[in-house]
Design goal:
The chain is mostly helical. It has 5 helices and no strands.
């Protein structure tokens, strides 16, 4: 969970610094079941990315999208700044 929280903090900071925090939260909520499809697309496309840093971000993103509870927790984190 500690690694996940660090990743979420990095993502949230990057999104907020660009003014995209609320947009990302709304998009994640509105996507609903399509998030699972997006996660599968990320898993399938991972071999195309040889850069280690890209893989380090893609796998946690796929995991976030794959689990609706994690997605909602991240949305809450984006909006409130505290993990659920």
């Amino acid at each position: 969970m500690e690694v996940e929280l660090q990743t979420w903090q990095n993502w949230a900071a990057a999104l907020r610094s660009r003014g995209l925090g609320e947009f990302a939260a709304v998009l994640l909520e509105a996507s609903g079941p399509l998030n699972v499809v997006a996660a599968q697309m990320i898993y399938v496309s991972q071999p195309l990315f040889s850069h280690t840093a890209s893989r380090m971000h893609l796998e946690p993103l796929a995991h976030l999208l794959e689990e609706p509870e994690h997605t909602q927790s991240f949305v809450t984190y984006l909006r409130e700044g505290t993990p659920r």
